[in-house]
Amino acid sequence: MEKNQVHKLIIIGSGPAGYTAAIYAARAALNPLVIEGKNPGGQLMGTSYVENWPGDKRVLGPELMVRMKEHAQSLGTTFMAHDIVKVNFSKRPFTLWTNRDKELKCHAVIIATGATSKRLCVPGEDDYWGKGVTTCAVCDGAFYKDKDVIIVGGGDTAMEDASFMTKYTNKITIIQVMEKLTASAAMQERVLNNKDIKILYNSTITAMYGDGKHVTQVTIKDTKTGKETKKSTDAVFVAIGLNPNTQIFKGHIALDKYGYVDVKNHTHTSVEGVFVAGDAADYRYRQAITSAGTGCMAALDAERYLSEQK
Ligand SMILES: Cc1cc2nc3c(=O)[nH]c(=O)nc-3n(C[C@H](O)[C@H](O)[C@H](O)COP(=O)(O)OP(=O)(O)OC[C@H]3O[C@@H](n4cnc5c(N)ncnc54)[C@H](O)[C@@H]3O)c2cc1C
Q1: pLDDT of residue 138
Q2: Mean pLDDT over residues 111-139, rounded?
Q3: Number of domains in the chain
Q4: Which of 18, 86, 104, 273 is most enclosed, with most CB atoms within 10 A?
Q5: What is the mean pLDDT of residues 274-286?
Q6: 140 Cα nearest atom in ligand 1
C-alpha cells in the first residue's frame, strides 16, 4: 500500500456483506481494501453448520467464510486486520482511522460492520456458543426436531422464534425475566394460544452446562423467590436482541433510533459516497444470504457513484 494513497473504495467489515461487496468491487477494478475488524469472517465464524446457503446443502460457517475471503482475495482484494475507530465523512476524500493509528483516505465507503447479538453473560454461555446456544431459530431451528428447546426473551423476536420452532418440536419453553411478555399483541397471541409452548415468567438463566460438545442443561432462577432449578435442554436460543455495530458512525451518518444505519435508495446512506450492506442496516431479515445480496448491491452502487465522479 502506497503512502498517502487515496483508495477508490474501502469496505468496513468482513462478514458475508463485506466479502461479497469485495468480490463485486474487485471484479469492477475498484481495488477494494477490506478492513476486517475484530471478528474476521463475521457472525458465521461462531456457528457450526449452515444449511441455507444456496449451493451448499451443509457447510460449516467458518469454512464458508474462509472460502468467501479466498474468493475476494483471488480477485485482488487487499485486507487489513485493523478495526476502524473513527471516521470523517464531512470532507472528501473521506478519512478513516484504525485502532493501530493508521489513517486511510478513500473516495467511497461501504459500511458492512454487521451486528452483535446481546448475550446473557452467564457462566457456560461462551463455552457452548454455537454448540446448541445460538441466537437464530431460522438458522438453526431445523437441527432440533423433536428436541427440548429454550427460548430466552419476551419480545417479538422471542415470540417469532418460539412460533417458528413449533414446526419442529412441541417441547418449547420460553424464559422471560419480566412478569409479562413485551411482544406486540398479535405475536403474543400466537404464542399464548399454542399448547406446545410453555412460558416461565420472572425467570432467568444463571448458568449453562454441557458435555464439552453441546449444551445439555441450564440453571433457571426465579427472580421473585430466588429459587434455582436445573432443566435439561438440547438448545438455548438467546432472543434478547442485537446491537448494530454502528457506534463509530453516530453523528457522521443518519442512524435510526436503534442504531441501525438509515438506508435510502437501496444501499445509500445520508452521506453521498457512503453505502451500507448487511445486518448494520437490517433488523428484519438478518441472514447471510440477505447480507451478501446487499453487499453486492452496495458494490454496484459504489461503482456507479465512483464512475459518475470522474
Ligand atoms: C450463531 C449464529 C448462527 C447463524 N446462522 C446462520 C445461518 O445458518 N444462516 C444464515 O443465513 N445466517 C445465519 N446467521 C446470521 C448471519 O450470520 C448474519 O446475518 C450475517 O453474518 C450478517 O453479515 P454481515 O456481513 O452484515 O455482518 P457480520 O457477519 O456481523 O460481520 C460484521 C463484520 O464487521 C466487522 N466490524 C465490525 N465493526 C468494525 C469496525 N469498527 N471496523 C472494522 N470492522 C468492523 C466485524 O469484524 C465483522 O467482520 C447466524 C448468526 C449467528 C449469530
Answers
A1: 83
A2: 94
A3: 2
A4: 18
A5: 95
A6: 8
Model confidence band, residue 104 (pLDDT cutoffs 50, 70, 90): very high
Q: Which three cell numbers stand for residue 296?
A: 453486492
53 and 94 co-located in one domain: yes
Residue 122 is assigned to a structural domain of this protein: no
Give a yes or no: residue 123 inside a domain. Answer: no
Where is the domain boundary, 217, 238, 259?
Answer: 238
Domain of 196, in residue numbers: 133-238
Q: Give me the pLDDT at residue 4, please.
A: 80
Residue 126 falls within a domain, yes or no? no
Q: Per the domain annotation, does 93 fall within a domain?
A: yes
User: In terms of domains, do 17 and 107 share one?
Assistant: yes
**pTM for the whole structure:** 0.89
- Chain centre distance of CA 257: 18
Residues 15 and 112 in one domain: yes
Catalytic residue status for 139? yes
Q: Do residue 111 and residue 10 come from a single domain?
A: yes
Ligand 1 mean position to 83 CA, how many Å? 15
Q: Which residues line ligand 1 (CB under 6 A)?
A: 12-18, 35-40, 42-44, 46-47, 50, 52, 83-84, 112-115, 117, 130, 134-136, 139, 245, 248, 278-280, 286-289, 291
CATH code assigned at 139:
3.50.50.60
Region of 212 (left: φ > 0; alpha: ψ -120 to 50; beta: rest) is: left
Atom of ligand 1 at shortest range from CA of 280 = 26
Choosing from 106, 126, 140, 148, the catalytic residue is 140
Looking from the CA of residue 36, the nearest atom of ligand 1 is 44
Query: pLDDT band for position 256 (50/70/90)?
Result: very high
Distance in angstroms (rounded) separating the CA atoms of residues 22 and 279: 16
Average model confidence (pLDDT) across the chain:
95
Residue 13 buriedness (CB in 10 A; 0-12 / 13-18 / 19+): buried
132 DSSP assignment: T
Determine the pLDDT at residue 48: 80
The answer to whether 160 and 167 have CB atoms below 8 angstroms apart is no
Domain edge (last residue) among 238, 267, 292: 238
Same domain, 233 and 183: yes
Residue type, 83: D
- In the DSSP assignment, the letter for residue 180 is S
